[in-house]
Amino acid sequence: MQAPICGCVLALTACASLPPPTAELNAARQAVARAADADADQYADGDLARARDLLGQAQSAMADGREQDARDLALRATAAGDLAHARSREAASVAELGQRRAEIADLRQRLRLEETP
After folding, report:
1. What pLDDT digit, counting tens, does each position of 64-87 carry?
2. Does the residue 68 lie in any domain?
3. Is 36 within a domain?
4. Where are the beta strands (DSSP E) in 44-88?
5. Degrees (nearest 5) of the Cα angle 81, 82, 83?
6. pLDDT, averaged across the chain
7. pLDDT of residue 65
8. Distance CA 85, CA 74 (A)
9. pLDDT tens digits, residue range 7-36?
10. Which of 63, 65, 85, 74 is nearest to 27 (CA)?
11. Please, which residues have CB within 8 angstroms of residue 20's CB and are 6 or more apart in sequence?
12. Domain range for residue 60?
């Protein structure tokens, strides 16, 4: 009978001793900033908007003293920010690849014209 009570007390003590989610909120802010710096507004606008929304919700939850909600929302905001960053970089790379291919095609065309007598 004592073991279940001790287990419950330990579980409650562990939950109560979690530090505020400041590290998680900072990570979320950084992820959103990285995505914005990678032009996610242009290439991954929906993902960036979601990350910003989740970050705002996390900050509101923290201000209301709902630390576990703030932690969960901050982790989700970090993931959304990272996704926006990755999608933005991918889109920028694809756009650059298309531009380089067009330049190569143009150069090939010019070379053909120069070779023709």
Report:
1. 999 999 999 999 999 999 999 999
2. yes
3. yes
4. none
5. 90
6. 89
7. 95
8. 16
9. 555 555 555 568 999 999 999 999 999 999
10. 74
11. 62, 67, 70
12. 18-89
For residue 115, the tally of other CB atoms under 10 A from its CB is 7
Residues 18-37 as b/e (b if ≥16 CB within 10 A, e otherwise) read eeebeebbebbbebbebbbe
Q: Say if residue 111's pLDDT is above 70.
A: yes
State which amino acid sits at residue 16: A
Per-residue pLDDT at 91 exceeds 90: yes
What pLDDT does 115 receive?
A: 75
Residue 77 included in any domain = yes
| Strand runs labelled E in the chain | none
CA distance 16 to 10: 10
Would you state the structure tokens that stand for residue 114, as one six-digit string?
């120069």
Residue found by looking up tokens 């067009």 in the block: 102
Whether residue 86 contacts residue 39, with contact meaning beta carbons closer than 8 Å, is answered with no
Q: Is residue 79 part of a domain?
A: yes
Domain count of the fold of the chain: 1
Inter-axis angle of helices 45-63 and 22-37, nearest 10 = 160
